[in-house]
Write a structure and sequence with these properties.
Elements: E1 5-14, E2 19-28, E3 31-36, E4 47-49, E5 54-57, E6 59-64, H1 77-82, E7 86-92, H2 100-110, E8 114-120, H3 143-152, E9 157-164, H4 175-186, E10 192-196, H5 203-207, E11 215-217, H6 237-244, E12 248-250, H7 260-268, H8 282-286, H9 293-302, H10 307-312, H11 316-321, E13 339-352, E14 358-372, E15 375-379
Parallel strand pairs: 1-4, 1-5, 6-7, 7-8, 8-9, 9-10, 10-11, 11-12
Antiparallel strand pairs: 1-2, 2-3, 5-13, 13-14, 14-15
C-alpha cells in the first residue's frame, strides 16, 4: 500500500505552500507524501472523506499558556488543542528560569501537542500574586538564568518573554524592554516577545528597542498606547514601519486584549496581524471569550480578513517563527502529517470581544477532524 491514510475530496487550503483546490492528501509513515487530485484509494489502508470540508495544515497557536501558576491547562492541553484543530502551540512565557523544568516535565510526561516556549524574563514566570506581576519587583528579573535556560533547552525554548504594563514591571520606562532585548542577545539572538496592554509608555518608545523577528503580542487591545496611540483612530507611522521592517505583530486574543472596534479600524487601514493566536488559558477556554483558535479566526473572518490570509497566519507564519518552517503548518510533501479538516458553517453566531462587545457572525470555522503525525487524533461527534 502506498498510503497509510488518504484524505479525499476536500478543498485544500495551504497558502504557505501555494496549495489551493479540490485535492486528496496522501499520508505514509507520519508524513505527507502526496497532494493531488484523485489519488488512488486502492493504494490506501484507510480513507477519510473530506467532501464539502476545508482541509488545512494542523493549526499552530503562537501564543497560549500551558503552565501559568505552575499548572493552568497543564495535562489538559491536548483536550483543548485536538478538538480545535491545533496540533502545535507556543507557550508564551508561563515559566521562567526557576520553574521551566516543571513546564518541561508536564510537556514530556502529559502532553502530545507539539509545544515550544518563550522563557519569561522573570525567574518565577507568570505567577498570580496580590503583590503585583512577575516583574513588579526588580530582583525577580533573571537575565542570566533566562539566557541559560534557553541555551540548555534548545529543542523547547525559543525566546524571551516580557509582559509590559501597569503592575507588571518594576519601572514604567523602556528599561524592562532593553533588558529583555539584551537577554535575547545573550541567548544567541533569539526573539523577544513583548506583551502590551494599557501600556504606561507610548508604543513607539518601546519599538525603538526591538529588532526584526521580535514580537509585539496583543496588538489589537483597545487600551492605552496601542498601535493607534491615544486617539485610537489611525495607525501610528512607527507601527507601520516596524511591521515593514520585520517586527511581528501577534493578535493574541486573551481576556483583555481583543477589541472589535480596534480590529475593524486596523483592518480597514490595511493592518493585518502577522500571526493569529489565542492567549488561551483554562479560564478563557472554558468561560470565554476566546474559546479556541478557530473562534478567533472566525472573528477576523467576520471583519473581512480573507480566508487564505487567516489560514496563513494560523499555520505557516507561526510555524516559521517557532522554527518549524516546511515541517509543520504546511501540507507540502515531506512535512509532518498534521491536518485539520474544517467545516465553514453558515448561520448566525454571537461572538464577544474582551471588552464585552458582541457581533453576530454569518459563518464560523468548526474543526471536524484533527490528524497529528499521520494518526487521527480527534473526530467531532455527530450532530455537534
Amino acid at each position: 500500500m502506498q498510503y497509510d491514510l488518504l484524505v479525499t475530496g476536500g478543498e485544500v487550503i495551504d497558502p504557505g505552500a501555494g496549495l489551493r483546490g479540490l485535492m486528496d492528501v496522501g499520508i505514509a509513515g507520519g508524513k505527507i507524501v502526496a497532494v493531488a487530485p484523485s489519488l488512488p484509494a486502492s493504494e490506501a489502508r484507510r480513507e477519510i472523506s473530506a467532501k464539502g470540508r476545508l482541509v488545512m495544515p494542523g493549526l499552530v497557536d503562537m501564543h497560549a499558556h500551558v503552565f501559568v501558576n505552575g499548572h493552568d491547562m497543564g495535562c489538559q492541553t491536548d483536550h483543548f488543542c485536538q478538538a480545535s484543530g491545533v496540533t502545535t502551540l507556543c507557550d508564551a512565557g508561563s515559566a521562567g528560569s526557576s520553574n521551566f523544568a516543571g513546564l518541561r516535565h508536564v510537556l514530556d510526561q502529559e502532553v502530545r501537542t507539539r509545544v515550544r516556549a518563550f522563557v519569561n524574563l522573570s525567574a518565577i514566570g507568570i505567577t498570580g500574586t496580590s503583590r503585583g506581576g512577575e516583574l513588579s519587583h526588580f530582583p525577580y528579573a533573571d537575565p542570566e538564568g533566562c539566557a541559560r535556560t534557553i541555551a540548555e533547552n534548545p529543542d523547547l525554548a525559543i525566546g524571551v518573554k516580557l509582559r509590559f504594563g501597569p503592575g507588571l514591571v518594576w519601572e514604567y520606562s523602556a528599561e524592562p524592554v532593553k533588558l529583555a532585548r539584551r537577554t535575547a542577545d545573550m541567548a544567541g539572538g533569539v526573539p523577544m516577545m513583548m506583551h502590551i496592554t494599557d501600556s504606561p509608555v507610548p508604543l513607539p518608545d518601546l519599538l525603538e528597542h526591538m529588532k526584526p523577528g521580535d514580537i509585539v503580542t496583543h496588538c489589537y487591545h483597545g487600551r492605552a498606547h496601542g498601535i493607534m496611540g491615544q486617539e485610537k483612530e489611525f495607525l501610528l507611522k512607527e507601527v507601520v514601519e516596524a511591521q515593514r521592517h520585520g517586527i511581528i505583530f501577534d493578535c493574541a486574543h486573551g481576556r483583555n486584549h481583543f477589541n472589535f472596534r480596534m480590529i475593524e479600524r486596523a483592518l480597514d487601514q490595511g493592518f493585518l496581524p502577522d500571526t493569529i493566536s489565542t492567549d488561551l488559558t483554562m479560564t478563557t477556554a472554558t468561560k470565554g471569550p476566546v474559546w479556541d483558535l478557530p473562534t478567533t479566526m472566525s472573528k477576523l473572518l467576520h471583519f473581512g480578513m480573507p480566508l487564505d490570509e487567516v489560514v496563513r497566519r494560523a499555520t505557516a507564519a507561526p510555524a516559521k517563527i517557532m522554527g518549524y518552517e516546511g515541517t509543520v503548518g504546511t501540507l507540502r510533501p515531506g512535512a509532518n502529517a498534521d491536518i485539520s479538516i474544517f467545516e465553514l458553517r453558515d448561520g448566525s453566531f454571537d461572538m464577544r470581544d474582551s471588552d464585552g462587545d458582541t457581533i453576530t457572525a454569518k459563518r464560523r470555522l468548526l474543526a471536524q477532524t484533527t490528524i497529528k503525525d499521520g494518526r487521527i487524533w480527534y473526530v467531532r461527534p455527530a450532530g455537534v
